[in-house]
Amino acid sequence: MKTNAKKILFIGCGAMGEAILSSCLKNGLYSPEEVFVAESDSKKRSEISLSYGVQTMIPEEACRGENNISAVIAAVKPQEAESIIPILKNTRFQMLITIMAGVSCSYLTDRVGEIPVLRVMPNMCVKVSKSVSALFANENLLASPFKNELMEEAEKIFSALGAVIRVKTEDDIARATAISGSGPAYAAYFIEALEEAAAALGFSPDEAGFLSLKTFEGTLAYLNETGESAASLRKKVTSPGGTTEAAIRIYEENKLKETVSAACRAAYERAVELGKKKKVSETRQTDYEPGRELGKKE
Fold this sequence. Notes:
By secondary structure, this protein is of the alpha/beta class.
């Protein structure tokens, strides 16, 4: 199965969903004719149709009559997860890709049946193709005769948006949420603090922002290009008795590393808590049949 030989359905197309859609088209993974977008917001439907030339529809009419859907991308807000269940039940597809934070694979399979599910945790940097996305395949996907082709297809989609890492357990998705999912906010928060510190030293807001952002840009470029560890670079810059050492001493006295660790732990525990709230108490549904998967392995 070639990646661009099948069609793809987006359920919901907010900021994250549109970034994925745009990348799929920009990188030639799908043609506009192979992309369908089910979106409840009429204004958003019009914008998507006009901007990308793809077929849009209300969720209730998602891909009626289509029998060649390779992947469905669930890109609605987590609190709207229940609303997509009827669509999934009435759509023939090979793989469900969900980027809904806190919505477990079992939440979906309990309601739809034994469907192949790929949970993905990208981050906001998808908008500039610099995301890091964690991928977890459920048992049904791993058991699918299309496993290799489908995983390759998913990796092509998310590799076009940045870096990709496969994780072994669904709990790893919660861990990734705490590190890379929320990570852009952590980085932005520290840059924000550095900007405020620069302003307190007398720089104008523009100067403070420029110095702080460019310092981070240069540091990341250095680490990426040299392969040097962050700890090694820090030690190189920190001369005994120098200005950097004076600053690092303050960080250590205020237990910066311990604070960062505690913050990530809190984010992880919250991700787990949100997942538990999505646990189902209903009887398991079995109206998805393996025969609904498309065709036979090529």
